[in-house]
Structures are given as C-alpha cells and as structure tokens.
Amino acid sequence: METYATVKGQIVIPAKLRKKYGIKNGTKIIVTDIGDAIVLKPVTEQYLLNLQGSLKGKGGLQTLIAERAKDKEREK
C-alpha cells in the first residue's frame, strides 16, 4: 500500500488497515523511529489488554522510567 504526506506532514492510513487495526477517530498512535523505518502503532483497547500483566515481576517500573528518559532525550 502507498500513501502520501500532506504539507503539514499528515498521512492517510488506508481504510483496510484502519479497519484491521481498529483505528477510529481519536485513536492515539505511537510513532517510533527504528533507524531505517517509521513504525506506527495504534493504542487501542485490544493493545492495552494485551499489555496487561506483561511487565509483572520483570522490573517494569525501571524499564518504564528508562524508556521515558530515552523519549525525552530524543525530543531534545
């Protein structure tokens, strides 16, 4: 699939993908730069349910703090 960016940098996610991933008006999208690509990850109810309990007993708080620090550094 192919799409184009507008002057403001906005893109249109094709309807087929919006339906597949449950993207609706107002859905939050996580944008990640992985070096040679940009990954868009919708934050849907299903995504949040899948995360539930995934960090239990694995130092989740320290991981979250480290990730937040990396995000702040990238924004500078």
Description:
Helices cover 39% and strands 16% of the residues. The chain is α+β, with helices and mostly antiparallel strands and 76 residues long. It has a domain at 26-75. Strands 1-2 form a two-stranded antiparallel sheet. The radius of gyration is 15 Å and the shape is flat. The model has no long low-confidence stretch (mean pLDDT 85).
Cα separation of the termini = 33 Å
**Helical segment count:** 3
Note the main sheet: 2 strands, antiparallel
Question: What is the general shape?
Answer: flat
Question: How many β-strand stretches?
Answer: 2
Quote the beta fraction: 15-25%
What structural class do the secondary elements suggest? alpha+beta
> How confident is the prediction overall: mean pLDDT?
85
Radius of gyration: 15 Å
| Fraction of helical residues | 25-40%
How are the SSEs ordered, and which strands pair?
Elements: H1 15-21, E1 28-33, E2 38-43, H2 45-51, H3 60-75
Antiparallel strand pairs: 1-2
